[in-house]
Amino acid sequence: MIRFEPTFFLERNRDIDEVTLRAIAREVRKDILKMTSAVNSGHPGGAMSATDVIVTLYYYKMRHNPENPKWEKRDRFVLSKGHVCPALYSVLARTGYFPLEKLNEFRKLDGDLQGHPDMNKTPGVEINTGSLGHGIGAAVGMALGLKLSKLDSKVYCMIGDGEAQEGSVWEATMAASHYNLDNLCVILDNNNLQIDGPVDEVMSIYPAMEKWKAFGWHVIEINGHDFEEIKRALDEADTVKYKPTMIVAKTVKGKGVSFMENRAEWHGKALPPDLLKEALKELGGIV
């Protein structure tokens, strides 16, 4: 297991290379599959598409304190697509918010790791999410509150592309631009699949970049699995003034396991034991 001292996370833009980030992301994907398969429940596909961005946020970009989750100067992360919380739980455990063994409590009635993030149970979770379209509005409120408090903390929020069909997403998008929230960066996990199939067939959100630009946002499109592109986009967001930033991250649902990639059926279905063993082998063995 790759370990870092808690003080490592107190500053932004930390010195961490792509090889290390990729190794961490591989372990996170293993965690996702083991957590969901253990209870035969959860959403592994979207969690795996979101992994590389979340890993880069916590290990490279965000200023946060695993020993003091409510540290006032921290940057905030809101997982608006709350159903992919296994990725977040794994990263929180691996950065020191709680013991790695606690991942075994995922979706268990007496555990602290609920099927959707719960700020009252899980250290490091900023707000309860899972009702799609809810988290981005909360992130806008947090960013505005930080501005009013004259704190230089940033708010990062991840939304899903199926989630972007919700009207509340666009209300929040309009408000963020109106209030010139340059301390807000939203990442669209654009894997183009939702539970019912391709997003562009169920209810198209395209052209996504042009829509957010029309709402007054600074928009960047990247490969959401290229760590250098993710880092550059997050750094670019830091330079933007008087407008929020949207990063459209082109991703692959089920990324990392060949038979899961680009398959909508793994949106909300766990791997059975035989396929779990095959998937973990593909990711590099059971660790």
TrEMBL record:
Belongs to the transketolase family. CDD domains: TPP_TK (cd02012). Its cofactor is thiamine diphosphate. The keyword Metal-binding applies. Residues 32-284 form the Transketolase N-terminal domain. It is an enzyme of class 2 (transferase). This is Transketolase. InterPro entries: THDP-binding, Transketolase_CS, Transketolase_N. It comes from Desulfurobacterium thermolithotrophum (strain DSM 11699 / BSA). Gene3D superfamilies: 3.40.50.970. GO terms for molecular function: metal ion binding; transketolase activity. Keywords: Metal-binding, Thiamine pyrophosphate, Transferase. Its EC number is 2.2.1.1.
